[in-house]
Amino acid sequence: MPQPKFKDSPVEVDQHLLFPTNIFDLLPTDHDCFVYESLFQSIDTSEVEKKHHHLGQHAYPPKLIVSILIYAYSHGVFSSRQIERRCRQDLDLCTFHR
Q1: What's the predicted TM-score (pTM) here?
Q2: Distances from the Cα of 77 to the Cαs of 13, 63, 80, in angstroms?
Q3: Which domain holds residue 83?
């Protein structure tokens, strides 16, 4: 059975600006989003990924969705609309798209 395809990230977060700075250099190195990012890399979502079918629209990777939800919940953001807004505006939530 073919592997399911996931959507590409709509944001090229590793893209460098015109200046020799990566946008994540704007966050302090001890920002908690970097700690969360390393923890979320160890989440095993293989069982969930096996259930995705290869037909139909591409889904977002389950690890990305779980990471964003846990991070948002841990910061007191529970509304799906607020989470979406923060994903579009806040650098700390963008780190999980890298």
Answers
A1: 0.64
A2: 22, 19, 8
A3: 61-98
